[in-house]
């Protein structure tokens, strides 16, 4: 083994082989690759997982984290994705607390440091995987494989497929799971080292490894697969199992079967039994916590899993595997989302893409044959462990055990890429051993490291904000409706409605059942007063997805604008039926009732909105204004004061209550509220105009004149203010004549 590691000497100079220098180099390179993302925004899923996640707020009890999914929803809900990652959410919450709020920088720095730490830790992991666990009588480990472990760790540190995990805040789940995954593996190696000592030491480290595996799973589901990797490592490295020899003896009913190394190894059965029991127990608890069974995904999330033909499903699953393998091999075409038509379904064996399946299995079968049949025990072990590290962590994303909610996801390749880097390093070693052009191989390896580093830097920049991220996907997945939807949404948020409409229309063209694109497009058309098309789109959206509450509410708004009041009321009621806690819908229902002069119903609807969302400023305001307009000044004042207690800094509420107080001749208090509103928004003409009216009534005519003039400077076309200002000027002129 030491001789094989020495073949990499021309690639890894001996001057950087000391463990400390090797780890410093790996850590530095990993930071260089992704440092550009440190000041990025919250992008894509980050907003839902961080900003809109109520579990990150201080007022939410910590105990709720254990009953909610990753997005802050109840696990028992049928709409939950069942992504149970309470420890990741806890890390997010601690980050918010320590940084004083939702500041992206602190979250990005944590991710970058986590990736650096994992890359450093992999130096030790690869040293064990390449070198094994042989010790001298003094307890020093032999065959440290310093060159191969360093090269594999460098290849891992600079792999561009990791950009999503590092640059996206939600990738912290994958990073934390990987960290505890590796710690569990190293803990199990410690247990194997202690097997020749007191049995209690071995048991302790095995149990600790199982605990760390459970912690990894509570960061992300993939983490539990470390227990399978530990078992494979134990059987192959400690048990020295030769699978091919074992199969031969079983087939020939060889009586020497009982003498195989695996069966001779004391404690192996005990340790693997502990792993099996621990893993089963952890998975059982996880299943019980999920409550209502696995999550429900739609066809657009994973179209292959909805194919009626088992052959079509099998072909497409294997094609997805080949795409994942290609992302590891050539990580140049990267995309934040691979769903919604990005990868068209293979419907027959005549599709040319079947070649990718054949290529994948040709390579895998070749590697498996070498791993089983090679006479070199070191080669067998390295290939088997490399394949194990590549395949075992990927199993939860493989669709083999349950349907997953994606087609291809770069984030799930974070841990499997370690196995790929191990196999690639082994391949470089083999090439070095069998060729004389060692400098060419060295240049090739250094070229890969440099190109991947450059790609990481570029890709990290694309993840810094949503506009760059979404536009970068257009060239990779032009058939992905979600890409066009997100570009359109980003443009709409920036006020570019014309361009947003174009992308929303393309999203609907690519996926005629894309209800969210229809809803957003309908909203923009509604704002542009293109009500007829807006109604058609929203009607189609609720026809496709009858429980789409937001689309029902927006349809009601459009119908209200078209004066189809009965249909609008029915749409609002349907929206509330599908989403009982829907304050915005109650607010819009109240506006409908107000238009129909059903004042009591309007007040009740707005009151429901404020009960569900106490900070709903518009609902409070409308209640105050309606009560004011109908002459219920005392009730309007009470509602206004109640609202300001809940939202003390809302300038629009100050303005509305000030108007009520002015009519009730509570001039001093009204003046104070007007001045507070003006201080918050000094350039609002109506605030100055109504304060001028107050002063006019109160008899402070000079102050009234001053604020009338300010109001007219801000809005010269305000007819009411012009009229009142004219009345004031005539009154002042009359007073001057009297004084003369």
Report the average pLDDT across residues. 88
Strand count:
0
Summarize the main sheet.
none
**Count of domain modules:** 5
Low-confidence stretches: 196-200
Assembly state (oligomeric): single chain
Radius of gyration: 33 Å
Report on the architecture of this protein:
By secondary structure, the chain is mainly alpha-helical. The protein has 5 domains: 16-252 and 264-290, no CATH class; 309-434, no CATH class; 512-577, Alpha Horseshoe (Serine Threonine Protein Phosphatase 5, Tetratricopeptide repeat), CATH 1.25.40.10; 580-682, Tetratricopeptide repeat domain (Serine Threonine Protein Phosphatase 5, Tetratricopeptide repeat, Alpha Horseshoe), CATH 1.25.40; 687-739. The chain is built from 34 helices and no strands. The protein has helices spanning 2-6, 19-34, 46-51, 86-99, 104-131, 146-157, 163-167, 172-193, 199-219, 226-238, 243-251, 261-264, 268-290, 310-329, 354-373, 377-391, 416-434, 438-462, 466-474, 481-493, 497-510, 515-527, 531-544, 549-561, 565-578, 583-595, 599-612, 617-629, 633-646, 651-663, 667-680, 685-698, 701-714, 719-739. Helix 26 (583-595) packs parallel to helix 28 (617-629). The longest helix has 28 residues, at 104-131. Residues 196-200 have low confidence and may be disordered. One of its GO terms (cellular component) is membrane. Belongs to the TMTC family. Keywords: Endoplasmic reticulum, Glycoprotein, Membrane, Repeat, TPR repeat, Transferase, Transmembrane, Transmembrane helix.
């Amino acid at each position: 083994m030491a001789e094989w590691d020495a073949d990499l000497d021309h690639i890894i100079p001996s001057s950087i082989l000391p463990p400390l220098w090797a780890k410093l180099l790996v850590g530095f390179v990993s930071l260089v690759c992704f440092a550009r993302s440190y000041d990025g925004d919250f992008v894509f899923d980050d907003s839902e997982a961080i900003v809109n996640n109520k579990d990150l707020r201080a007022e939410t009890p910590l105990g709720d984290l254990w009953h909610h999914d990753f997005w802050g929803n109840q696990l028992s809900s049928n709409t939950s994705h069942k992504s149970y990652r309470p420890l990741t959410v806890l890390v997010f919450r601690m980050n918010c607390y320590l940084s004083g709020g939702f500041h992206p920088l602190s979250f990005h720095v944590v991710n970058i440091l986590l990736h650096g730490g994992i890359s450093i830790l992999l130096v030790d992991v690869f040293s064990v995987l390449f070198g094994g666990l042989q010790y001298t009588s003094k307890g020093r480990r032999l065959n440290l494989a310093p060159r191969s472990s360093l090269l594999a760790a460098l290849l891992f540190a600079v792999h561009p497929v990791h950009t999503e995990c590092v640059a996206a805040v939600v990738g912290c789940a994958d990073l934390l799971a990987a960290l505890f995954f590796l710690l569990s593996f190293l803990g199990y190696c410690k247990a194997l080292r202690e097997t020749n000592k007191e049995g209690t030491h071995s048991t302790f480290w095995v149990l600790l490894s199982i605990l760390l595996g459970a912690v990894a799973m509570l960061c992300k589901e993939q983490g539990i697969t470390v227990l399978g990797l530990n078992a494979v490592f134990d059987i192959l490295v400690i048990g020295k199992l030769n699978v091919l020899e074992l199969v031969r003896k079983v087939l020939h009913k060889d009586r020497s079967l009982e003498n195989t190394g695996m069966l001779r190894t004391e404690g192996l059965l005990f340790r693997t039994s502990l792993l099996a029991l621990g893993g089963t127990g952890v998975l059982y608890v996880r299943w019980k916590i999920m409550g209502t069974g696995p999550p429900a995904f739609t066809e657009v999330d994973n179209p292959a899993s909805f194919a009626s033909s088992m052959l079509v499903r099998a072909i497409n699953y294997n094609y997805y595997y080949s795409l994942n393998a290609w992302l590891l091999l050539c990580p140049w075409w990267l995309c934040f989302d691979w769903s919604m038509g990005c990868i068209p379904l293979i419907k027959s064996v005549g599709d040319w893409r079947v070649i990718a399946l054949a290529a994948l299995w040709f390579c895998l079968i070749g590697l498996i044959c070498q791993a089983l049949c090679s006479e070199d025990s070191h080669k067998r072990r390295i290939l088997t462990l490399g394949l194990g590290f590549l395949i075992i962590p990927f199993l939860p994303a493989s669709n083999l055990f349950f349907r997953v909610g994606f087609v291809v996801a770069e984030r799930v390749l974070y841990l499997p890429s370690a196995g790929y880097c191990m196999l690639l390093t082994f391949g470089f070693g083999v090439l070095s051993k069998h060729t004389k052009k060692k400098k060419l191989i060295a240049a090739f390896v250094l070229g890969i490291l440099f190109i991947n580093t450059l790609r990481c830097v570029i890709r990290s920049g694309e993840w810094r904000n949503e506009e760059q991220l979404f536009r970068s996907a257009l060239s990779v997945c032009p058939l992905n409706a979600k890409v066009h939807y997100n570009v359109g949404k980003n443009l709409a948020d920036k006020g570019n409605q014309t361009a947003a409409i174009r992308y929303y229309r393309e999203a609907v063209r690519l996926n005629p059942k894309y209800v969210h694109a229809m809803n957003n497009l309908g909203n923009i058309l509604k704002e542009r007063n293109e009500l007829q098309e807006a109604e058609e789109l929203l009607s189609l959206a609720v026809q496709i997805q009858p429980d789409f509450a937001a689309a029902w509410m927006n349809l009601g708004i459009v119908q209200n604008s078209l004066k189809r009041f009965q249909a609008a009321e029915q749409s609002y009621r349907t929206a509330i039926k599908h989403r009982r806690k829907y304050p915005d819908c109650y607010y819009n229902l109240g506006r409908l009732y107000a238009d129909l002069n059903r004042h009591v119903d309007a007040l009740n609807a707005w009151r429901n909105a404020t009960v569900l969302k106490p900070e709903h400023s518009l609902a409070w305001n409308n209640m105050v204004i309606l009560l004011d307009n109908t002459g219920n000044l005392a009730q309007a004042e009470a509602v206004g004061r109640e609202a300001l207690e809940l939202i003390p800094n809302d300038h629009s509420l100050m303005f509305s209550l000030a108007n009520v107080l002015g009519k009730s001749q509570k001039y001093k208090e009204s003046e104070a509220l007007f001045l507070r509103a003006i201080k918050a928004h000094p350039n609002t003409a109506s605030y100055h105009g109504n304060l001028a009216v107050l002063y006019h009534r109160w008899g402070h005519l000079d102050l009234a004149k001053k604020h009338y003039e300010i109001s007219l400077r801000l809005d010269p076309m305000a007819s009411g203010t012009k009229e009142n200002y004219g009345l004031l000027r005539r009154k002042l002129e009359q007073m001057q004549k009297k004084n003369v």
